[in-house]
Design a protein that fits this description.
The protein has helices at about 1-20, 25, 30-35, 75-85, 85-105, 120-125, 130-140, 165-170, 190-195, 205, 215-225, 240-250, 265-270, and strands at about 40-50, 55-65, 70, 115-120, 145-150, 175-180, 200, 230-235, 255. By secondary structure, it is of the alpha/beta class. Helix 1 (about 1-20) runs antiparallel to helix 3 (about 30-35) and helix 5 (about 85-105) packs parallel to helix 7 (about 130-140). The structure holds ligand C2E and magnesium ion (3 copies).
Length: about 280
């Protein structure tokens, strides 16, 4: 059962905390405790359909909420988790919580989707597809509501990420997207190698939209994606102008401060409440 799984994880974490040696590992002891104590929680950032401005999904982003109320910088603790392999436990903790929240929200908003980030290290676990499948089943969340964002600046080295495992994930019903496209390890070649559903163009490209008259790079990425039958999300959209250009260049979805910052579950829930029960139009 899920409780047994949680208890086993807890034991595993405790064992790992006790075995920590060396300065960088000692530095991560606090993070081990935080994961074990449920202090790493998802915040949610809306993903918007550019054509309509309607929220269609959420990305779950890890936040470290200290009991004091203080927030730790994800730009610091996520790289730390990546270096120490704790990212696998962190991904799992965020995913479990996010699946439970979204499963609950979908009773009123059956169209709502959720995207979770999986690091390359997570994908090195040979049974990663089954792990995610079980987390969705436990939360009674339809796998077709889930998008897996394959993050990572380093190319996954293990056996976990192959065309076959991506296919397996899609057979379960998950969508599989490449995150931070254009800056990470994945090249155009990888778009052909793996049977993906979409790409998220890295936010560094959003900042350039409108600065170069022809927006060559983003146009090239979205054209290639379209030819391969992939959907495109532009992340890091901060201005109306960027949203308009992204749409003109063929991007399907947008995500960024223009519409909303990542929000804690309770605030996201408040945003979801609309008079007609539809997903809200954010503009
Ligand atoms: P990402 O998956 O590309 O997530 C988007 C990041 O861009 C988030 O940063 C988000 O807060 C930020 N962002 C969104 N809109 C805007 C905008 O308009 N302007 C700017 N300047 N930034 C924007 P965050 O939350 O700090 O996360 C950073 C990265 O950490 C994520 O990038 C993702 O790669 C990783 N990450 C976050 N949560 C998890 C997790 O649970 N597991 C794993 N493996 N990685 C995670
Ligand atoms: Mg992401
Ligand atoms: Mg991204
Ligand atoms: Mg990014």
């Amino acid at each position: 059962t899920d409780f047994a799984a949680v208890a086993a994880d807890q034991l595993d974490l405790t064992r790992r905390a006790n075995n920590l040696q060396g300065p960088s590992e000692r530095g991560s002891a606090a993070l081990v405790r935080a994961i074990g104590h449920g202090e790493i929680v998802p915040w949610y950032q809306p993903i918007v359909e550019l054509r309509t401005g309607r929220m269609t999904g959420l990305e779950a982003l890890a936040r470290w909420e200290h009991p004091s109320g203080a927030l730790d910088d994800p730009g610091v603790f996520i790289p730390l988790a990546e270096r120490t392999n704790l990212i696998v436990d962190l991904d799992r903790a965020v995913m479990r919580r996010a699946f439970l929240d979204v499963s609950r929200w979908r009773t009123r908003h059956p169209g709502l989707r959720v995207s979770v980030n999986l690091s390359g290290r997570h994908l090195d676990q040979e049974d990663w597809v089954d792990q995610v499948r079980r987390a969705a089943a436990t939360a009674e969340l339809d796998p077709s509501a889930v998008t897996l964002e394959l993050t990572e600046t380093v190319r996954p080295s293990g056996p976990g990420l192959t065309a076959d495992t991506v296919e397996e994930a899609r057979d379960v019903g998950f969508q599989v997207w490449f995150d931070d496209f254009g800056t990470g390890w994945a090249s155009l070649q990888e778009l052909v190698t793996y049977p993906l559903d979409g790409i998220k163009i890295d936010r560094s490209f959003a900042a350039q939209l409108g600065r170069h008259v022809d927006n060559t790079v983003v146009r090239a990425m979205s054209t290639a994606a379209a030819e391969l039958g992939l959907k495109v999300t532009m992340e890091g959209v901060e201005t109306r102008e960027q949203a308009v250009i992204a749409r003109e260049l063929g991007c399907d979805y947008g995500q960024g401060y223009l519409w909303s910052r990542p929000l804690p579950a309770a605030r996201l829930e408040a945003l979801l409440v609309t008079e007609d029960g539809e997903l809200p139009v954010l503009g």
